[in-house]
Amino acid sequence: MRIIFMGTPDFAASVLKPLAESRHTVVLAVSQPDRPKGRGHATVPTDVHRAADALGIPVLQPEKVRAADCVETLRSYQPDLIVVAAFGQILPRRILDLPKYGCINVHPSLLPKYRGAAPIPWAIKNGDGVTGVTIMRMSPGMDEGDILAQEEIAVDPEETADSLFEKAAAVSGPLLLSAIDAIEAGTALPVPQDSAKATYSKKITKEDARVDWTAPSDQLDAFVRALTSDPGAWTRLDGKVVKFWKVQSIPASDLEGVERAAAEVGDPCGTVISVTKKWFDVLCGTGALRVRELQMQGKKRMDAGAFLRGFRLKPGARFEGREEA
User: Fold this and answer.
1) How many CA atoms lie within 13 A of 195 on its CB side?
2) Beta-strand relationship, 288-296 and 302-303
3) CB–CB of 309/256 below 8 Å?
4) How far is CA 2 from the centre of its chain?
5) 107: phi then psi, degrees, rounded to nearest 5
6) In this predicted model, what pLDDT tens digit does every residue of 270-316 receive, in sequence order?
7) Among 69, 125, 141, 161, which lies 20 to 30 A Cα-Cα from 117?
8) Contact of 173 with 126, CB cutoff 8 Å
């Protein structure tokens, strides 16, 4: 088949590679425009742009894919199929109807659960034990199309968004190629989604990623793992932003000595209640959060031991709560 691929981040680039190396021909890669990033605001190519360049695939980066000139450019490539993975723009009907075999989407959840932009973070945040990847026919609605193929993925207790994205990427390529074979052979069996079971996973903004210290420690543990590395769970200490990379939930029953005493006298949530050479504990709504890896504003990611050698953190110090924003 002649295929146009649409995607933007690393997950999409991981899907593009096996597709490009298959018997099919990827005639064009479409990605969001490159954007300035970092302190120097240098323009950085998207992950799909870089991958397509490496694979020798021409790249189109429209501000609006629905623009008439963009639609005509897509039409000029005469695609049999359009494959979409985390592209970032909604396709209008005139693009959905353009290819001979329509458009299909690679979505990292078990639809109809977690329709929307952030299925992997929400699966971890909500403590799911299983998620997966769905290949679906695209329709005008948000992730509402018929299911062509699905594969489950186990979510480990210590899973992070980064590690789960890697698992989903590894599953997506073979699942996609199998679905394309079925479409081409006329043996695909589309299954309508049960919209009554649908849930929506909205994009998590930077403000959404602010730590709420009144939450139980096990929920905050999942919260931190769900948001690595974008946008990253964060709070403030002495007015500076602190981003958490690795934490551990300490149940209230496991708090000892001074930690238990601090909790009992009513120290506010967000208070540091114990400091060692390798980690420190912060009081939560229930239990405590043991911080093992973090990143101070303007600094690199580091383990808590390195942080504590350069920053005099003592019990009684307090991280700002969300209510103080």
Assistant:
1) 6
2) antiparallel
3) no
4) 29
5) -120, 125
6) 999 999 999 999 999 999 999 999 999 999 999 999 999 999 899 99
7) 69
8) no
Q: Write out the E strands in the chain.
A: 2-7, 25-30, 35-37, 42-44, 59-60, 81-85, 103-107, 115-116, 130-137, 147-154, 200-201, 234-237, 240-250, 272-275, 280-283, 288-296, 302-303
**d(C-alpha 313, C-alpha 61), whole Å:** 47
Tell me the C-alpha distance between 12 and 38, whole Å: 22
* Tokens found for residue 8: 């933007």
Place of tokens 């504590």: 308
Please check whether residue 109 is in contact with residue 31, taking contact to mean a CB–CB distance below 8 angstroms.
no
What does each C-alpha distance from 260 to 251, 253, 288 come to in angstroms? Answer: 11, 9, 10
Question: Residue 300 is which amino acid?
Answer: K
Q: φ, ψ for residue 74 (rounded to 5)?
A: -60, -40
What pTM value is reported for the model?
0.91
